[in-house]
Amino acid sequence: xxxxxxxSKRERVLLIAAGSCVFLAVVYRLVLIPVREKNSGMxxxxxxxxxxxxxxxxxxxRQNQVGEDYxxxxxxxxxxxxxxxxxxxFQESLEKFCSETGVRITKMTPRQVKQTDWSKTYLVDLQIExxxxxxxxxxxxxxxxxxxxxxxxxxxxxKGKDVSGNDLGASLVVSMLVVADDPSSVAADS
Length: 190
What we know:
By secondary structure, this protein is of the alpha+beta class.
C-alpha cells in the first residue's frame, strides 16, 4: 500500500485507468467472447434443429396417408378362402372387367398355382376379342384394380381380314399375387 501512497494523484488515476482497462480486457476475453461464440453456435444449432423439426412435421403429416396406403395395399395382396375360391373370384373379376369394357372372352383356362414360401400366384390363360379402344380399357382396368394383377405373355393379332385394326384378338396370361400373413399358411392351403 505504501507504493500507492508514494504515487502522485495523476499517477494513481493512470494506474486505476490502466487497471480498469486490463480488468475489462480480461472480462471481455474470458467471459464475453466465449458467451458470444456459444450463442452464435447455438444459433447455428437452432437452424439445424429447426430444419429437422420441419422434416419431422412433414413426416408426421404424411403418417396417416402412409397408414391408409399400407392398409389398402395389404388388402390388395390378400385374398380369403381356398385356392379354388380364389381362382373363382379371380375369374369373376376378369369377366367383370371384360363386360365393363366390351371385351369378348373366347377362352379362359386356369393354370396351376405357383407357390413360394411367402406367396401364391394364380394364373389364368385368357383369349379375348375386342377393338383397340376396348382392349386398352381392359388392360387399364387390370393395371388399376384393387388386387394385384399382372399381364404376361401378351400376344396381339388381327382377327379376320379387316386391315383397319378394329377387330383384334389377344392371347395373354393374367396373374394374381396373394401374400400370406403367415408363411406357414401358404403351405397349409396346398
